[in-house]
Amino acid sequence: MKLLNRFSGLIFVLFLVLLGYLYSYFEIINDPADGIHVWRQTDGLSIAQKFFEEGNSLFKPEMHNRLGGEGKAAGEFPFMYYIVSIFYHIFGVHNWVFRSVWILTSMIGYYFLYRFCADLLKDKIWAMLISLFTFTSPILIVYGASFLPDPIALAFIFIAWYYLYKYVNERNRKHLVITCIFVVLSATLKITSLLSILAFAVVLGASLLIKRIRWQISTQALIYKFIPFVISFLVIFAWYYYASWYNKVNETSYFYLRSAPIWSLSSQEINEVALRLKGWSREYFYATGLHCLYAFALLTIIPISKKELKSPFYWIYFFSILGFIAFVALFYSQFSYHDYYVINLLFIIPLTLIFWVKKYGFILQKRRWINYTFQGLFLVLLIASVIHGKRRAEERFAIETGWLDKDLYELREQLESYGMDQNDLVLVPHDPSSNITLYAINMNGWTALNSIREPRIFQEKIDQGAKWLIVSDSSYYDNSIIDPYRDKLQLDFKGIRVYNLQ
């Protein structure tokens, strides 16, 4: 046991690496974006590529799709894409570079989750079990090695938890500053990642206000403690205000956070989304593990004594559950098509287990054999969850949606030999996404997303300089929009047809 306590951090990291191996991380490390939500994945890849090639500042993100004219558009704060572009300069533009940054950041998040659990519970075995259990969610496994910002935002929240707890216990202002930095980084990636932090902030804020009412602290001291949080929320607001302005100036609304509340849907639509959610459930968690979490949540949220209602941990969990429910209600219809929307709700998994162990510690610690028995049972559940996560990850990584013709990546390397310049503008009428084809060939232009299937807009883009028409979908070969250019076929590369528009 002494050996475990001494090297527990290293042991936990080794377990993380082992799970990464089991989840096929080392096999897919250099695979291109594909599978479910390849559309959104290539948006991030595109922004990172543009930072690398164009040398844009951090505050001027750009994509291959020209959108309002120059392809400039902002959603999440693109600092992670910017970091990837820096590594591109060192190692070259490779998928393994991007995936490695994502995997490493996710792993760091789990490590800090483990440290938070260990400090709060004073039990390193429970800390390992809870943190590793979180890393068995299939969508965290898949997107943690992917190209979406959601798992990175969650990782930063785990880091913020750790430093916030350190601040509460040690009153070292440095820890509060670090907390605020990671809260800002997380929220500017995904504003929905704030749910758990808001619960912490409400409880801490209420505690400080009560102390002020009782004259236990001065007004000046109260304001001083609130300043870092106020500054953090101002920075978060400033980014989203700037992003809105940036998109407006560049005439694009591509990145726009829209709510889709449950009350805006008909009863039939609500039922349809519920069925989709049921279908997605195996992507969220192992079924038995999910049922156990429901039980743990009920046991945690239902108070068993009046003393418990005075505990800040109870109210943190209570407000976290409220935030969880509010988010689901506000974005209900989005869950029908976006399984990754739930990623920043998965903070509830470790939080539920942590507070359950904390609440019933008086039973678990009464006898060692009781604690060891529960840990042994949970280990069995963890192993079953790992097996489920491994199976789902392998299936998800193997999915080819048909949205992407991977021969486009090969064409990218041979553009010049076919008389095409990387700076030429292209039209891709068969592609309904923003950047899947454009990123694959690394050329700027427009897709069906820009309504170029309409003859008038198609001609407008030609007038704006579009030089090539690219069609990689064989079902689109006979489309009438191609008719005027059939005699201008420049090449047919493995079924990828390129027509000269000029």
Give a description of the structure.
- With 502 residues, this protein is mainly alpha-helical.
- The chain is built from 20 helices and five strands.
- It has a five-stranded mixed β-sheet with strand order 2-1-3-5-4.
Describe the secondary-structure layout:
Elements: H1 2-22, H2 25-28, H3 38-54, H4 79-91, H5 95-121, H6 124-134, H7 138-144, H8 150-170, H9 173-189, H10 195-213, H11 219-249, H12 267-284, H13 287-301, H14 312-330, H15 348-359, H16 361-364, H17 368-398, H18 407-412, E1 425-428, H19 436-441, E2 445-447, H20 455-463, E3 466-471, E4 489-493, E5 496-500
Parallel strand pairs: 1-2, 1-3
Antiparallel strand pairs: 3-5, 4-5
Helix pairs in contact: 1-5, 3-4, 5-6, 5-8, 5-15, 6-15, 6-17, 7-17, 8-9, 9-11, 10-11, 10-14, 13-15, 14-15
Structure, briefly:
61% of the residues lie in helices and 5% in strands.
Q: Choose one word for the global shape.
A: elongated
Low-confidence blocks of residues: none
First and last CA, distance: 74 Å
Beta fraction: under 5%
Give the tally of β-strands: 5
The helix content, as a percent range, equals 55-70%
Tally of separate helices = 20
Mean pLDDT score, rounded?
89
- Main sheet attributes: strand count, strand direction, barrel closure: 5 strands, mixed
Strand order of the largest sheet: 2-1-3-5-4
Q: How are helices and strands ordered from N to C?
A: HHHHHHHHHHHHHHHHHHEHEHEEE
| Alpha-carbon Rg, integer | 25 Å
Please identify the structural class as seen in this structure: mainly alpha
